[in-house]
Design goal:
about 160 residues, elongated
Length: about 160
């Protein structure tokens, strides 16, 4: 009798531990401001010029929608280990190698900014890049939150 009761307690603790683990890994991340929009991605090249599988050659063009990091991410670590600063010209992209330099042009007004990829994202369907607040301000997208952009790989 006592062994059965002990096994039941151990089983309940294991189930509780698994539930806690699963729930803690289901956190949502919001890195943007503004409304969701669909995107189209157009790449002018398919070969790789870097030793990274996701590297794209200079001149590659990507079109889609950009958003920017919310204030709550300032001071947190990015995917490549940097400390995120809203004042630096950095960005998150889903697959471009860290350190890739890209020119981002706001297609609504023609303003451009050069940023370095140091994080992963955006994690919202239809977005192709998340910009730092400084970069978003430079291309005048703070009030709209999400804008259509053209991204050109520089190096």
């Amino acid at each position: 009798m006592k062994i059965t009761a002990i096994f039941k307690i151990i089983l309940k603790l294991n189930i509780l531990g698994i539930l806690v683990f699963l729930l803690s890994s289901c956190q949502s991340v919001i890195r943007f401001s503004g409304n969701s929009s669909s995107s189209s991605v157009k790449m002018s090249h398919s070969s790789n010029s870097k030793n990274d599988d996701n590297a794209l050659p200079p001149g590659t063009v990507i079109k889609g929608y950009a958003s920017y990091y919310g204030d709550e991410f300032d001071g947190r670590r990015t995917a490549n280990g940097d400390i995120f600063s809203q004042r630096k010209f950095t960005a998150a992209h889903k697959s471009l190698p860290f350190g890739t330099k890209v020119k981002v042009t706001n297609l609504n007004n023609g303003l451009s900014v050069i940023v370095i990829i140091n994080d992963r994202g955006p994690f919202v369907q239809g977005r192709v890049i998340d910009l730092s607040k400084a970069a978003a301000e430079k291309i005048d997208m703070l009030s709209s939150g999400v804008v259509p952009v053209e991204i050109v790989v520089i190096e």
